[in-house]
Amino acid sequence: MAGLASRCFRHAPWVIAVWLLALTGLVLAAQHSGAAYRDTVALPSADSTVASAMLPPGDQERVVVEAAGTIDTVRDRIEPLLGELAGLDHVTGVVSPYAAPELVSADRRIAVIAVSFDAPAEELGPEPAARLVDTARAVEGDGLTVGVSGQLAAMTVGAPNLGNAGIGLLAAALVLLITFGSIACVILPVVTAAVSVGSALAVVVVVSHVMTVPKISTEIAALLGLGVGVDYALFVLTRYRQGLREGLPAVEALERAAATSGRSVVFAGVTVCVSLAGMFTVGMAFLNGIAITSAISVALTMLAALTLLPALLRFGGMRTLPRHTASGGGWSWLARSVTRRPAPYAIVAVLVIAVLAAPALGLRLGMPSAGHDPPGSPTRVADTLLTEGFGPGANGQLVLVAERPDPAATTAVREIVAERASVGPPQGPVLTVTPRTAPDDPATAQLVSWLREVAGPGWHVGGAVAVQTDFSATVTSRLPLFLAAVVAISVLLLALVFRSVLIPLTAAVMNLLTAAATTGVVVAVFGGPIEPYLPVFLFAGLFGLSMDYEVFLISRIQEEWRRTGGTRTAIVEGLVSTGRTITAAALIMALVFAAFAFVDSRVVREAGVGLTAAVLLDAVVIRCLLVPAVMVRLGRANWWPSRRREHPAAPIPVPRDKAGRIH
User: Fold this and answer.
1) Rounded distance, CA 320 to CA 326, Å?
2) CB count, 10 Å around CB of 114?
3) d(CA 302, CA 648)
4) The domain made up of 1-34+162-325 is a member of CATH 1.20.1640.10
5) Which one-letter DSSP state was computed for residue 69?
6) d(CA 72, CA 88)
């Protein structure tokens, strides 16, 4: 690492030019190719997939209209709309509500226009989706409200929005300025993160043409990349500043920073990527796309911290330590207090985690209905109108499909199903079932299971709600394997780095506590249901991100332990020297994550809130309180099987300068 950083420093113009050329080329390639996001979930063996294969091919959309009076008073506006919809590419049929009474509400205020396409939504793509929605909503106004429901319409909702990322970076810059009092400490980490994440997002767009990449991948990649990017650069920069404070020449200070903090950055980045790779154990292309694109973003930010940042330091004007330094007396007092009385601090930390984790007991996994889409979106408007006009289950219709046409059997099944849901007239071997509860109500998922039981062999249940139910069940069934894989990988990596048994095991336990508290915060803020893949992403992400602070803190403690032989002494010095950086880095990352808590996409908002809570809890409660308290209790056992000799009588150190900072 030291050699790489030194070469990048000496050849700074070339390194900066390569990064800028790469960024420019990737952005141009992304603009030329355009995005090809796919939100489809492939469940080849699911019952809903079998049912879908037995139905006529093609997507079915519903344009829902509401008149201020009745739909008869706006017929002169709706009938031209029927013609415009019929003229759209790939449209094979349009059913008028004036020709189908079942498509009109009882009070005749709300009506449905059924639109059929010649291919599934995932094959049609976003352009036909946009044309459908634009055509339908063009007639809106003057007492007429229009919404669109269906898989095509859903493609127009929650498009990637990275505007909040800039707000997060500005907030991070303010924290850097207050914490370090140096313009260079503000500009260098932010520029490093911005260049690397910009390159990563362009790669995501290009990669979307060769694999399944959901549209939320852009926001997730930006969220993770910006958060860890600023942190990685800050870790290296902090150690570089410490070298300058000790009077080292710039090159030597950078080489030492690369050999210590740079090594930690590599390990932390690799751990994040490996933890994200654990999502592959779920076995879904949808999640694989999120994992790969997020890992690309993290990997590029890690590379930028080790190459672009050293090059920028040559022109950053930071050859001597800035005059402004923050007092370290508070960290010195906290470190001595925790090591003297570890039990009370450990109890308080565990109680905080328990309180935050309590709502997780009410976790309910499932896909939220369109009623959770952004206000004013075509799908949310349609969901509201369908509920008002036809009941809560109107936007979650199911289909029962028989393998062989049998009128008598179809009639018998219809009579049974009518006891718990509304059933339309048979259309050959197909029955349309309208639940009496909302699509995301647990009773609707129970209805799907009940239909499969009572219909018996030869019948299959399909529809969007059935697909979502099967998706939730599949992810949930694979969660234990996923959790075990991520925990095992993290433990092994930490064991390799620290040559210890207890440090990786205690880190895994504490990460599990953080995961429980994070889940509790998300449930408390958003209620239910929570997307089944969100815990997968949050768990992989926070396990990887927590390694940033674990490695940064434990590496410094281990350095002091190797130097002094006293675990207690090493904990104090390690916490004092890293505490300010860890908390500043956590606050910066939290501000970046929090900026994504206000985007349109619900799952990105959930991820933003969850990761904000996770990094703050992990950095403040876990790393600064619980980890030191537990390590003090474990004593020399922390380092087993290391043969380094322990000195049990090692005194608790006192600050070495007036500011209370230990160098």
Assistant:
1) 16
2) 17
3) 38
4) yes
5) S
6) 25
Residue 194 makes CB contacts below 8 A (sequence gap 6+) with 169, 226, 229
Going by the DSSP 8-state scheme, the letter that residue 590 receives in this structure is: H
Q: Which of 265, 274, 271 is nearest to 307 (CA)?
A: 265
Are 470 and 284 in contact by the 8 Å Cβ rule? The answer is no
Give me the residues paired with residue 145 across strands.
66
Q: What is the pLDDT of residue 165?
A: 67
Burial (CB < 10 A; 0-12, 13-18, 19+), residue 183, is middle
CA-based nearest residue to 42, from 449, 471, 464, 532? 471
Taking the C-alpha atoms of residue 647 and residue 341, their distance in angstroms, rounded to an integer, is: 19
Task: Enumerate residues 6+ apart whose C-beta is below 8 A from 569.
Answer: 560, 650, 651, 652, 653
What is the token pair recorded at 277?
Answer: 């790779």
Q: 1-34+162-325 with 330-368+440-663: one CATH topology?
A: yes
DSSP, collapsed to helix, strand or coil, labels residue 400 as strand
Which pLDDT belongs to residue 375? 84
CATH code matching the domain that covers 57-154, chosen among 1.20.1090.10, 3.30.70.100, 3.40.50.1010, 3.40.50.12280: 3.30.70.100
Q: How many other CB atoms are found less than 10 A from the CB of residue 505? A: 14
DSSP secondary structure letter of residue 259:
I
**Cβ of 360: how many Cβ atoms within 10 Å?**
19
Q: What's the rounded Cα separation, in Å, for the pair 591 and 249? A: 34
Q: Long-range contacts made by residues 160-163, C-beta under 8 angstroms, separation at least 24?
A: 160/215, 160/216, 160/218, 160/219, 161/219, 161/599, 161/600, 161/601, 162/201, 162/218, 162/219, 162/222
Q: What pLDDT score does 385 carry?
A: 93
Contact 469, 54 (CB under 8 A): no
- What are the phi and psi torsion angles at 144 (to 5°)? -120, 125
Cis peptide before 529 (omega within 30 of 0): yes
pLDDT for residue 317:
57
644 within 8 A of 565, measured Cβ to Cβ: yes
Q: Is the C-alpha dihedral spanning 93, 94, 96, 100 positive or negative?
A: positive
Q: The domain 330-368+440-663: what is its CATH number?
A: 1.20.1640.10
What residue spans define the domains of the chain? 1-34+162-325, 57-154, 330-368+440-663
What tokens does 407 get? 């009128």
DSSP code at position 84: H
pLDDT value of position 650:
38
Structure-token pair, residue 238 = 């902090």
The pLDDT, as a whole number, for residue 659 is 41
Q: What is the mean pLDDT of each run of 10 residues along the chain (663 residues)?
A: 80 90 93 81 81 85 91 90 91 90 90 91 85 91 90 76 69 76 79 90 90 84 82 81 78 81 81 84 84 91 90 70 52 85 91 93 84 86 92 89 85 88 86 89 90 88 87 86 85 84 89 90 88 84 77 82 82 83 82 80 85 88 88 86 51 40 40
**Residues, the chain:** 663
Rounded distance between C-alpha atoms, residue 314 and residue 322, angstroms? 16
Closest by CA to 528, choosing from 356, 367, 358, is 367
The rounded distance, in Å, linking the Cα atoms of 240 and 5 is 11
How many Cα atoms are found within 13 Å in the side-chain-facing hemisphere of 421?
30
**CA separation, residue 225 to residues 24, 293, 300, 638 (Å):** 18, 10, 8, 32
- Main-chain dihedrals φ then ψ at residue 434, nearest 5 degrees: -110, 115
Tokens standing for residue 499: 């040559």
Sign of torsion over alpha carbons 502, 641, 559, 649: positive
Q: Give the pLDDT score at 159.
A: 57
At a CB cut-off of 8 Å and minimum separation 6, what does 657 contact? 663
